[in-house]
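Researcher: Go.
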Amino acid sequence: MTRLPPGEPLPLEFAPRAARLPERILPMRPTDGEGPFDDPGYFFEPWWPGIRAIVLVEGGAVRLRAEALADPSPAFPELAGVAGLVRGDGLVLDATLMVLDARGRPSRPLLERRLRGGGPGGAAAAGAPGGTPPGGGAAALVASDLLYLDGRSLAGRPFGERRGELAAILRPADWCLAGRGFVGDGTTVAAALGELGFRALSARRLDAPLRAGPAGDAWYRVPVVAAPRTLPPLVAVFRRLPL
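Model: Structure:
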């Protein structure tokens, strides 16, 4: 065995590799809004009926952190396919995780079944991201913000820039997309979402940097008057959203 001279660095294949992404990320928490409003400095999009998930992509592997839950990755093996949809590495997405029924509609009962350990059924066995397993529903992810890129935090950059980067690095699939919405016209968006059955919309200030903890005026969760109907398929909603 060849001995290295004192002070000589280890060969790269033996050098320890530190993770670029932090193990714990404190997300920004939205402020409860009083009602819909118009403002050209804000981006309005649906408040999707799922659970908030932080998705970390590093070295081709995908890790999930979801609200106050333990690691939900075993219940959503399809989401390993996110690594094949992003351009680059060392990424952190702030997203909403849902489970869709056989007609492509977000389903709270199917989501809760997954989280209780009901399992993904045939989709995981077939290795088909976004497939619809018998009785188990299909996992779907809508990404709303990009927190890290190439291992570097984007916290100091305004939301409008972060959202632009997100759209550039995430190749859309029918089960994983970057969020879409409108700039400025929050009252019209609220009325349209209410007719579709949504109960809230997201209002993000375009020039606001990322804040850990309370968002203040950087991000509002705004209630809307929802029609008593089942939400339409995910893809149908996205076809109505231009951005």
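Model: The chain has one domain: 30-239.
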